[in-house]
Amino acid sequence: MIPVDAAWHTIHTHAKQLEPIRVPLTSALGRTLRTAACADADSPPFDASAMDGYALRRAEANAPLRVIGTSAAGAAFTGSLGASECIRIFTGAPVPADADCVIKQEDTTREGDVLSVQHADSPAFIRRRGENRQSGDVVVPAGTRLGPAELAALASAGIAQPAVTRAPRCVHLVTGNELVAPDQTPTGAQIRDSNSTLIAALLQQHGAELIAQTRVPDDLAAARATIESLPTFDLLLISGGASVGDHDIARPLLEALGFTLHFQQINLRPGKPLVFASRGPQLAFALPGNPVSHWVVFQLFVAPLLLLLQTGKTSPLARHPGQLAADTQLPPPDARQTFWPSRAVLTQGSYEITVLPIASSGDSSGLVGANALLPVPPPPGKFAAGQTVDFLLCP
Ligand code: AMP
Ligand code: MG
User: Fold this and answer.
1) Residue 30 Cα, ligand 2 centroid: separation in angstroms?
2) Which of 67, 98, 223, 275 could covalently link to 286 via disulfide, CB atoms 3.0 to 4.6 Å apart?
3) 172, 192, 195, best to mutate for ligand 1 pocket (most atoms within 8 Å of CB)
4) Which of 311, 337, 359 is where one domain is finished?
């Protein structure tokens, strides 16, 4: 049985960042930028008005001025200002070179073409060329995870097809003679398959592309044929059958497919029969079928792996301090490294942790609300309300 830290070490020595591709901005949310994005022009590209008002020379503002034209956003004034002349101007419009301020319209009165200025001492209200960014400045550094603000910055810089890490291509094979689809009513020894839904959602949340998801019986030949018929993938997740029971096909399946198994058991509760394997750059996990094990193992290993494939960063989940909401006893004591699904809520600047009442690792509804993992020290697994604990926040 491999310790949790050693398992992560093994995983990240077999993984490396995927190659970049160019995608349209509409497909780039959440992706990692691979090439620094630089401004292709000054921003703003010209001296621009910050107000609706009048552009003029401040030294002339204490006497009436004649309004000789207009500069609007997208339609600059092309003439020049003579003595005691001004133009009407709108926010975002170019300010003529011979004006040195914009007086906002609330500070003026106008009769026909004659303008009088009331507050000539107001700020200039001109956004100077290049005051935001100069041509060539880096607007989004390489390695940035692209959120809405970063995408907008790329759009401003004219980068419509940024180079980003491609999404990891994942295949999910769900094994189990007992499984039926969520829209079916189980009979006899059947149960509903909840792991397909769980894994599809987790993969989506972590930026992966689920290229195929198939439910198969515990039949090695059928499972093998299914995988061999699929296009190439980066990550194979096999749900269920990861242990050594008569119906557990995940390990022989991985071997039949030519994968090398790197570990087959981990000192973890829940999730002991976790298998990690590789075939060249392709990686695979066999995940123990219990839904709670699935969630825990995904957060501890699959999520950081997907991050590594996309960002190249090898950081496991960050630990945060929090206070337990209530007295807690986690039964039964176990010598394995336990990670208990929990709920962390930020209250008045610190996290309050509630350990979820999970009856067994088959209890998928016990996971509702889970957004954290509480590492539980060896027996007796007892905590007092208000006690400070370190926990892992699951994004
Ligand atoms: P296994 O890892 O295949 O031995 O499965 C362990 C437990 O998880 C068994 O009780 C299975 O019925 C259950 N299980 C396996 N796959 C799923 C699934 N896709 N959805 C819900 N429960 C499952
Ligand atoms: Mg099974």
Assistant:
1) 34
2) 275
3) 195
4) 311
Same-domain check for residues 254 and 186 = yes
pLDDT tens, residue by residue, 345-378: 999 999 999 999 998 888 889 999 999 999 987 6
Q: What's the domain range around 302?
A: 4-19+166-311
- Which residues have CB under 6 Å of ligand 1? 174, 176, 178-179, 191, 193-195, 239-243, 288-291, 362
| Rounded Cα–Cα distance for residues 294 and 364 (Å) | 10
3-state secondary structure of 199: helix
Ligand 1, atom 18: nearest CA belongs to which residue?
Answer: 193
pTM of the predicted model over 0.90: yes
Please spell the DSSP secondary structure of 54-75, one letter per residue.
EEE-GGGTTS-EEEEEEEBTTB
pLDDT band at 329 (very low <50, low <70, confident <90, very high): confident
**Quick one: 151 and 30 in the same domain?**
yes
* Pairing of the two strands 169-175 and 235-239: parallel
- Domain termination residue (choose one: 311, 329, 348): 311
Same domain, 25 and 62: no
3-class state of residue 160 by DSSP:
coil
